[in-house]
Design a protein that fits this description.
The protein is α/β, with parallel strands linked by helices. Helix content is 46%, strand content 12%. It has a seven-stranded parallel β-sheet. It has a six-stranded parallel β-sheet with strand order 3-2-6-7-1-8, with helices on both faces. The chain binds adenosine-5'-triphosphate and magnesium ion (MG). The site of adenosine-5'-triphosphate has 17 residues, from helix 3. The site of adenosine-5'-triphosphate (ATP) has 17 residues, from helix 3. GO terms for molecular function: helicase activity.
Length: 670
């Protein structure tokens, strides 16, 4: 028997066993969610070690570093072998490891810096600043946007020219300048001995391609390459695998084409579909049993994904007993009622014995977690957010709050500077100077209502920022408390339309998401008459860090997970709440409008990923009314994804809140 003593037959099903113990070669394990793909890969590593393969000959590529750590830990617990020489991690971390050893060959030193997003931004801003681009005529894209453009070009191979023309048509007049920035940015990175995240992959490729001997060494080393979540690799990553494996290494890639959800970041599910073609004599393993979910949830998931054009046909059987309870379909009045329902149910489930860390609330977009965050906080239910920041810690939300705070408190130096920094040509020093001037006008100490026109007269406003500065003054004049537009939601509207929207559009790549966040904030602000009340509520929430009354977190307290679906990939919980399943929210309105079958299919895959995270209990809820401040209340239809499964697969819940249950006869959900 194996030195580890693992009983492979007992711990794996036949299909998993066949993959785990398959002879060296090229293998693709393609199977649906929860079928044990990740488990299979883990046992494969153990099996290779049992076969006497040296740990250093194994390379394990995963989607997150956390996943890599967990898998390595699991292997360590399974086998007695020393696994310290095994390389495991994300593509980026592996690229980094290789580059550290051979940086000189590329004109870098071994101690090259890795630029994080902030570093990238300031480097690009520096480049732009030094290029004398006349941004007065037209807005020039901000660093974030430029960085995304460059990254898309490098990861998809689509020329920058076309990326600008197709995805950023409003910057088309800047083609020449943007190209110049790209080239200067690359040069600056080299000069400063630094690499960005894309370089970690692309420079690794470059290195291995130009030095055959070196490539030979790595090909010899990595005799066994294992890849999890293969469906979300992009062209560069797949090329790297193929290159490293080019000396005849074994490759085992596991994935699920139905869970490919990163095409917007350049991932290409064609990689998994064409694997058998690209690797002669490759074996394809399928696993048809699902170990995660009860049959009730699994059937629903299968039905939901069946609406996509067939790729690899697979239908999962559940290995688990019927639970006897169907997934819940919960139409509910509005987002606040939805949050109350979720919080209430979480408490009930906890009373039934399900620990908080076995529960998750999943949503398509971050802003959809706003009401849930509020409700959990006010009920003292601890939560952890895996995707992104807490709502009120996000830069754009803080920006908008800064305007409101400055309206109510003109001594607020932090807010004043935060706003000044949003304007072109004003940096930290400039903001300091302006604040000094503002102090001199005396308005910071006077008790009467400020004359905001004074703001406009401040010395030291650079030419570039004059337009914005004026706008700021007008907005402030309009927003004086007690004046016409003094309702908190009106204030946010004025800030957004008067000034901030421009900034959002030019600064952030994910404009739509951020705009939605602010609209969500506006609608939340509709609950308050007085802007001070709103502001105190906001600051309490952000300082409390999800803990009621700002209590300190106890070590390892149990927490509910709040996560975007994208970040929930590969994970599982006993109870999953999937919220905001209204048409236009999920599937997203932009995708419905685009009327593009491929985009809709990716959206449906995202839905499938969400459903398949649940082990025992699944709650699908949708707010019937979306209270939007300015367009008025919007009546929402249930997600069109519900049309993809028979009505009797779910149990419709009537949870009150004045809602008498059921959709109007003309608009039956099914
Ligand atoms: P996803 O597609 O979501 O990444 P997956 O295919 O990687 O899912 P795993 O996470 O490996 O699936 O497994 C899902 C659950 O089923 C895990 O809790 C795992 O331990 C369990 N499981 C998988 N195979 C078996 C088995 N043969 N016996 C018992 N439990 C199993
Ligand atoms: Mg997995």
């Amino acid at each position: 028997g194996p030195s580890s003593g693992i009983d492979y037959r007992a711990e794996l099903n036949d299909e998993q066993f066949a993959a785990v113990t398959s002879p060296p070669g090229r293998a693709l394990v393609i199977a649906g969610a929860g079928s044990g793909k990740t488990r299979t890969l883990t046992y494969r590593v153990a099996f290779l070690l049992d076969q006497g393969i040296d740990a250093k000959n194994i390379l394990l590529l995963t989607f997150t570093n956390k996943a890599a750590r967990e898998m390595t830990e699991r292997v360590r617990s399974l086998v007695p072998h020393d696994v310290s020489a095994l390389w495991s991690g994300t593509f980026h971390s592996i690229g980094n490891r290789i580059l550290r050893r051979h940086a000189e060959d590329l004109g870098f030193t071994k101690s090259f810096s890795i630029l994080d997003t902030d570093d990238q931004k300031s480097l690009v801003a520096n480049v732009v600043g030094g290029m004398d681009i006349d941004t007065k005529v037209r807005r020039f894209p901000k660093s974030d946007v430029l960085i995304t453009m460059f990254s898309l070009e490098r990861n998809t191979g689509e020329p920058l020219k076309e990326i600008i023309a197709h995805r950023y048509p409003y910057f088309d007049d800047w083609q020449r300048e943007i190209h110049a920035v790209r080239d200067a940015y690359a040069k600056r990175k080299q000069e400063t001995n630094s690499m960005d995240f894309d370089d970690l992959l692309l420079k690794t490729l470059e290195l291995l391609k130009k030095d055959e001997d070196l490539l030979g060494l790595y090909q010899k080393r990595f005799r066994h390459i294992l890849v999890d979540e293969y469906q979300d690799t992009n062209a560069v990553q797949s090329e790297l695998i193929d290159l490293l494996a080019g000396g005849g290494s074994s490759v085992m890639a596991v994935g699920d084409d139905a869970q490919s959800i990163y095409s917007w970041r350049g991932a290409d599910m064609g990689n998994i579909l064409s694997f058998p073609k690209r690797h002669a004599e490759s074996k394809v393993f399928k696993i048809e049993t699902n170990y995660r979910s009860v049959p009730e949830i699994l059937e629903l998931s299968n039905a939901a994904i069946r609406a996509n054009r067939a790729r690899y046909e697979k239908d999962l059987r559940s290995s688990r007993e019927q639970l006897g309870v169907k997934p819940a379909l919960v139409p509910i009045e509005d987002p606040s009622a939805q949050a109350q329902f979720v919080a209430q149910r979480i408490l009930e489930l906890r009373d039934e014995g399900i620990p908080l860390e076995e529960m998750a609330v999943l949503y398509r977009a971050h802003f959809q977690s706003l009401e849930i965050q509020m409700e959990l906080t006010s009920r003292g239910i601890p939560f952890a957010i895996t995707s992104g920041l807490r709502f009120f810690e996000q830069a754009h939300i803080k920006d908008v709050a800064a305007f409101l705070r400055f309206v109510t408190n003109r001594r607020d130096e932090t807010c004043f500077k935060r706003i000044a920094l949003l304007m072109p040509g004003i940096g930290a020093k400039g903001a300091d100077k302006l604040w000094g001037e503002w102090l001199k006008t005396g308005w910071t100490t006077k008790e009467e209502l400020p004359d905001w026109v004074e703001v406009l007269k401040l010395k030291g406003v650079p030419k570039k920022a004059e337009k914005h500065w004026k706008q700021f003054g007008y907005i402030m004049a309009e927003l004086t408390p007690g004046a016409e537009f003094a309702r908190p939601e009106d204030m946010i509207y004025s800030v957004l339309e008067g000034m901030y929207d421009d900034h959002l559009r030019a600064t952030f790549d994910n404009y739509d998401n951020r705009r939605s966040d602010i609209e969500q904030l506006m609608s939340y602000a509709g609950n308050f008459e007085d802007v001070l009340e709103l502001l105190s509520q906001l600051s309490l929430l952000s300082s409390a860090d999800g803990q009621p009354g700002g209590q300190r977190e106890e070590a390892d307290t149990e927490k509910v997970t709040l996560s975007s679906i994208h970040q929930a990939k590969g994970l599982e919980w006993k109870a999953v709440f999937l919220v905001w399943l209204a048409d236009g929210a999920f599937p997203n309105g932009r995708i419905i409008e685009a009327d593009d079958e491929d985009m809709m299919e990716e959206e449906r895959r995202l839905f499938y990923v969400a459903l398949t995270r649940a082990k025992d209990e699944l709650y699908l809820s949708y707010p019937l009314i979306n209270p939007k401040s300015y367009s008025g209340d919007v009546i929402q239809r249930p997600s069109r994804f519900f049309d993809d499964f028979p009505k009797d697969m779910v149990e419709e819940w009537n949870v009150g809140s004045g809602w008498s249950g059921g959709w109007g006869a003309a608009d039956e959900p099914f």
